């Protein structure tokens, strides 16, 4: 797999130099590459100058067999902020998200190129243990998927396999409080997680993801299967989580993206990251015409 990596030290330096070139960090010395199918330029690097970068994609690509699902993605996601990923169905949102904690490893056909760096380290390096990585970068899926275990055990599970030998009760309570679920379940911790409502199950899954004390939480349409009340709870929770964690959330709901995120990444058909920046700016004044058309509902 490492054969497909193209990033070397030289390019590293070039990028660092480029970051200082312009306020928005784009490389001015090298022209942005032009996409062959759309004729658009893909920014070679998009840098948040004053924020602490946690996740960085460098020429990250994904193919499923012969199908190109992600064109080279270059982006830096800042710490303790919410980044929303939006775009039409099939544009590669989930594929990108799954690269961040190597969930694409589970997909036989998926082939990843370029680099996905977590705190500067390429997560596809041979010495990275994907299981340990997923404790640092937790994930919450569209459909709540608690284990067929008690509420308590759902939360304790990750800590147990990690060999945690501290105060488990305290950690479980802390995670359930962190997921805004404690008050609703504190008297039924021995009951099955599957007996909770859909919205509660999703918060249980969030508690399970935060129990091992991750840095990043990935969410793939976490509220799309929930009713409006449960959705509002999860949205409030995401806002709170961002005080402690870096949150990357895929959503089809543009109002939701506008409400909850600090930064927005817009992927469009063809697996291309077309625009990335402050959420307010993307929604009020997108640079790219296709992004404007998508956001204003002209297609998608
Ligand atoms: N396991 C797979 N095998 C083959 N092709 C896949 C696989 N998973 C996704 N793809 C293809 O890769 C492309 C991107 O899919 P992805 O699921 O990342 O899109 P998405 O933006 O998350 O879409 P949606 O909004 O519908 O969830 C699509 O063309 C899809 O058909
Ligand atoms: Mg998806």
Global Rg: 19 Å
Please give the largest β-sheet.
6 strands, mixed
Uncertain runs with pLDDT below 50, 5 residues or more?
Answer: 1-32, 42-50
Structural class: alpha/beta
Strand content: 15-25%
The CATH superfamily is identified as: P-loop containing nucleotide triphosphate hydrolases
Outline, from the CA principal axes?
globular
- Please report the distance between the alpha carbons of the first and last residues: 34 Å
The helix content, as a percent range, equals: 25-40%
- What bound compounds does this protein have? adenosine-5'-triphosphate, magnesium ion
The overall number of domains is 1
Q: How many E-type strands? A: 10
Number of helices: 11
What labels would you give this structure?
10 strands; 300 residues; Rossmann fold; four-stranded antiparallel β-sheet; single chain; disordered N terminus; 11 helices; 34% helix; alpha/beta; binds adenosine-5'-triphosphate; six-stranded mixed β-sheet; binds magnesium ion
Describe this structure in words.
There is one protein chain. With 300 residues, the protein is of the alpha/beta class. It has a single domain (2-295), classed as 3-Layer(aba) Sandwich (Rossmann fold), CATH 3.40.50.300. It is 34% helix and 22% strand. The chain is built from 11 helices and 10 strands. The protein has helices at residues 9-21, 93-100, 130-136, 151-161, 168-178, 182-185, 198-210, 228-241, 254-260, 279-284, 289-295; strands at 53-64, 67-78, 82-86, 110-118, 121-122, 137-140, 216-220, 246-250, 263-268, 272-278. A 6-stranded mixed sheet has the order 6-7-8-3-9-10, with helices on both faces. It has a 4-stranded antiparallel sheet with strand order 2-1-4-5, with helices on one face. α5 crosses α7 and α7 (198-210) packs parallel to α8. The longest helix is centred in the last third of the chain and has 14 residues, at 228-241. Mean pLDDT is 85; it is low at 1-32 and 42-50. The structure holds adenosine-5'-triphosphate and magnesium ion (MG). Adenosine-5'-triphosphate binds at residues 64, 67, 69, 87, 89-95, 107, 109.
């Amino acid at each position: 797999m490492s054969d497909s990596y193209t990033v070397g030290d030289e390019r590293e330096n070039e990028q660092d130099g480029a970051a200082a070139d312009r306020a928005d960090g784009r490389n001015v010395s090298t022209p942005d590459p032009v996409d062959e199918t759309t004729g658009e330029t893909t920014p070679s690097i998009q840098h948040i100058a004053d924020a602490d970068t946690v996740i960085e994609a460098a020429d990250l690509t994904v193919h499923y067999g012969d199908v190109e699902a992600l064109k080279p993605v270059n982006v830096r996601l800042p710490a303790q902020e919410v980044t929303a990923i939006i775009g039409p169905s099939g544009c590669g949102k989930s594929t990108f998200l799954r690269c961040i904690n190597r969930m694409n490893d589970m997909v036989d056909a998926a082939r990843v190129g370029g680099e996905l760096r977590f705190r500067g380290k390429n997560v596809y390096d041979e010495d990275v243990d994907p299981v340990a990585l997923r404790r640092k970068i937790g994930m919450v899926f569209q459909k709540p998927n608690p284990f067929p275990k008690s509420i308590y055990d759902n939360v304790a599970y990750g800590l147990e396999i990690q060999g945690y030998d501290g105060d488990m009760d305290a950690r479980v309570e802390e995670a359930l409080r962190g997921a805004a679920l404690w008050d609703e379940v504190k008297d039924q911790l021995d009951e099955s997680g599957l007996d909770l409502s859909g919205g509660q199950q999703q918060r249980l899954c969030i508690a399970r993801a935060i129990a091992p004390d991750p840095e990043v939480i990935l969410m793939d349409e976490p509220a799309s299967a929930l009713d409006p009340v449960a959705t509002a709870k999860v949205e409030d929770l995401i806002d709170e989580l961002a005080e402690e964690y870096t949150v990357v959330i895929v959503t089809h709901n543009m109002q939701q993206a506008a409400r909850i995120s600090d930064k927005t990444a817009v992927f469009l058909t063809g697996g291309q990251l077309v625009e990335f920046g402050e959420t307010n700016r993307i929604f009020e004044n997108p640079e790219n015409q296709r992004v404007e058309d998508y956001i204003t509902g002209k297609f998608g």
